[in-house]
């Protein structure tokens, strides 16, 4: 169990640029989640995959955001035409088992849009 | 819709003392789960403890225990014998079976352990 891995740890980009983040879940976990956390707040749900299927998307996930999980392994989260309001920590988590199984989180990717 | 409230933005505790972090929740569902996570300054969310709505006993994990009062809709975290390494942000979270497996988090409590 090597834990959930996220890359990069930090990303600074200019407004209007596209960015892509990667998440490698714990290998046997079939569920993968993306959350966004702004300073001083708890994480907010963005989207959820079971294997390769994206089963739920939050209303927070505007059409500039897209997430994929090809082959049910790693996942990518892309933000197009970044805005300053996108600056946040993006957390990935994975889990296995029933709905109340703990989520295992990665260290996050901190995005700063200038 | 479910909601988690953590009313203590910051807490201080002396090393080796016990501390209670408050969490209240709101849901009309009978079946739900409650979690506590710890987030050090490094950013990683670390799972601490879980309590199911039908669990009759309060959950315990080492120095962590969850004081579950269902009628009051509270799920307070008790940390015994605080250590300097316990200084971190602590989040209470809830999950519902039909919620597409999404956790709803509170706004957190920043705990500082004093030497």
Q: What kind of assembly state do the chains in view correspond to?
A: heterodimer
Main pleated sheet of chain B: 6 strands, mixed
Strand content of chain A: over 45%
Characterize the main sheet of chain A. Answer: 7 strands, mixed
Task: Bin the helical content of chain B.
Answer: under 10%
Classification by helices and strands of chain B? mainly beta
The number of E-state strands of chain B comes to 12
End-to-end Cα distance of chain B, whole Å, is 41 Å
**Pair with the most extensive interface?**
A-B, 27 and 27 residues
- Helix count from the secondary structure assignment of chain A: 0
N-to-C span of chain A: 36 Å
Uncertain stretches of 5 or more adjacent residues of chain A: none
Mean pLDDT of chain A: 93
Sequence-ordered SSE layout with sheet pairings:
The complex is a heterodimer of chains A (114) and B (115).
Chain A: E1 5-7, E2 10-13, E3 19-24, E4 31-37, E5 44-50, E6 53-57, E7 65-68, E8 75-79, E9 88-95, E10 104-105, E11 109-113
Parallel strand pairs in A: 2-11
Antiparallel strand pairs in A: 1-3, 3-8, 4-5, 4-9, 5-6, 7-8, 9-10, 9-11
Chain B: E1 3-5, E2 10-14, E3 19-21, E4 24-26, E5 33-39, E6 46-52, E7 60-61, E8 64-69, E9 74-79, E10 88-95, E11 104-105, E12 109-114
Parallel strand pairs in B: 2-12
Antiparallel strand pairs in B: 1-4, 3-9, 5-6, 5-10, 7-8, 8-9, 10-11, 10-12
Notable characteristics:
heterodimer; A: 114 residues; mainly beta; 7-stranded mixed β-sheet; 4-stranded antiparallel β-sheet; 11 strands; 0% helix; globular; B: 115 residues; 6-stranded mixed β-sheet
Overall description:
The complex is a heterodimer of chains A (114) and B (115). With 114 residues, chain A is mainly beta. Chain A contains no helices and 11 strands. In chain A, the strands form 2 sheets. In chain A, strands 2, 4, 5, 6, 9, 10 and 11 form a 7-stranded mixed beta sheet that branches. Chain A has a 4-stranded antiparallel beta sheet with strand order 1-3-8-7, with no helix packed on it. In chain A, strand 4 and strand 5 form a beta hairpin. In chain B, the strands form 3 sheets. In chain B, strands 2, 5, 6, 10, 11 and 12 form a 6-stranded mixed beta sheet that branches. In chain B, strands 3-9-8-7 form a 4-stranded antiparallel beta sheet, with no helix packed on it. Chain B is globular, with a radius of gyration of 14 Å. Helix content of chain B is 0%, strand content 50%. Chain B contains no helices and 12 strands. Chain B is mainly beta and 115 residues long.
């Amino acid at each position: 169990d090597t834990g959930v891995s996220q890359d990069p740890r930090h990303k600074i980009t200019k407004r209007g640029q596209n960015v892509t983040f990667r998440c490698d879940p714990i290998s046997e976990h079939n569920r993968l989640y993306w959350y966004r956390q702004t300073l001083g707040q708890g994480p907010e749900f963005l989207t959820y995959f079971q294997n390769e299927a994206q089963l739920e998307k939050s209303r927070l996930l505007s059409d500039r955001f897209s997430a994929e999980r090809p082959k049910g392994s790693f996942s990518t989260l892309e933000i197009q035409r970044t805005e300053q309001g996108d600056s946040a920590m993006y957390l990935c988590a994975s889990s296995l088992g029933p709905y109340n199984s703990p989520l295992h989180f990665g260290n996050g990717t901190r995005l700063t849009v200038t | 819709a479910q909601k988690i409230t953590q009313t203590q933005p910051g807490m201080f505790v002396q090393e080796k003392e016990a501390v209670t972090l408050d969490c209240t929740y709101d849901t009309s569902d009978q079946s739900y789960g409650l979690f506590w996570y710890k987030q050090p300054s490094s950013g990683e969310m670390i799972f601490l403890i879980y309590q199911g709505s039908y669990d009759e006993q309060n959950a315990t994990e080492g120095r962590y225990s969850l004081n579950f009062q269902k009628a009051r809709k509270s799920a307070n975290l008790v940390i015994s014998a605080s250590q300097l390494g316990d200084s971190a942000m602590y989040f209470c979270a809830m999950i519902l079976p039909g919620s597409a497996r999404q956790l709803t988090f509170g706004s957190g409590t920043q705990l500082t352990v004093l030497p």
